[in-house]
């Protein structure tokens, strides 16, 4: 994988996510044929894989809890 193309694909993913949040649904156009307009590259697939959230990742929940100041035990201290 080309690192420059991967960085560009990551930026494209982030920009698309930001635009989808900012877009008003009432003003969004229906483009059913636009989906087949562009080929997906290996770098695009890798960028999607890196950006997408993983619900099945057990360590992600622990990292979020630790970052929020809570422990991994739901706020309870473990006894020795």
TrEMBL record:
Organism encoding this protein: Monoraphidium neglectum
Annotated Basic and acidic residues bias: 10-27
Protein name (database record): Uncharacterized protein
Ranges where the record places region Disordered: 10-29
